[in-house]
Structure formats: C-alpha cells, structure tokens
Amino acid sequence: AVQMWQFILQKLNPTIIGECEKAIQWANEIVKHWLMTGMFANDPESETKATHVCSELNNHHTTYTHSRHIHFDKAQ
C-alpha cells in the first residue's frame, strides 16, 4: 500500500496543500459575501449568520465530504 501511495503522491506538485488551503479560504470568502448580499441581505446580523453558515459547511468533522446532504432540520 505504501508503494502505491508513493507512486500517486510523487506526481503531485509540492505546493498543492497551500493551493488547496487558498482555494478553501477564497471559497469561504465568496460564499460569505453571497450570503450577506443575498439570503441575509436585510438582516442586521447578516455577517454573523453568514460566518456561522460558512463555518458549518467548512467543518469537515461534521460534513465529512463535499457532497454530503444536509437535512432540512439541520439547515434551519
């Protein structure tokens, strides 16, 4: 198994982790802006709510994967 992963990982650019972290940060900023100017546009607590939504969606300990379904009750 180690040899297989070594073969796969040697093809990746050493900067891939940094690039992924920047992409996550950028996506978080974009989604927060969209929430503040869209869904929470007229809410005085728009920034707080948008920050909370983003932190929940970006929490890999609770979502586990990008494609995980979030139940309506949890999204409330």
Q: What key phrases describe this protein's structure?
A:
mainly alpha; 76 residues; elongated
Description:
Helix 2 runs antiparallel to helix 3. The protein is an all-alpha fold. The N and C termini lie far apart (43 Å). The protein has a domain of 35 residues. The model has no long low-confidence stretch (mean pLDDT 91). The relative contact order is 0.08. The chain is built from 5 helices and no strands.
In summary, what is this structure?
The chain is mainly alpha-helical. It has helices at residues 2-9, 16-37, 46-57, 60-63, 72-75. 3% of the residues are buried.
Largest sheet: none
What is the molecular shape? elongated
| Share of helical residues | 55-70%
Question: How far is it from the N-terminal to the C-terminal residue, by CA?
Answer: 43 Å
Kindly name the structural category: mainly alpha
Average pLDDT rating: 91
Radius of gyration equals 17 Å
Please report the number of helical segments.
5
Strand content: under 5%
How are helices and strands ordered from N to C?
HHHHH
Uncertain segments of ≥5 residues (pLDDT<50)?
none
Number of strands: 0
Produce the secondary structure layout.
Elements (H helix, E strand, L loop, with lengths): L1 H8 L6 H22 L8 H12 L2 H4 L8 H4 L1
Helix pairs in contact: 2-3
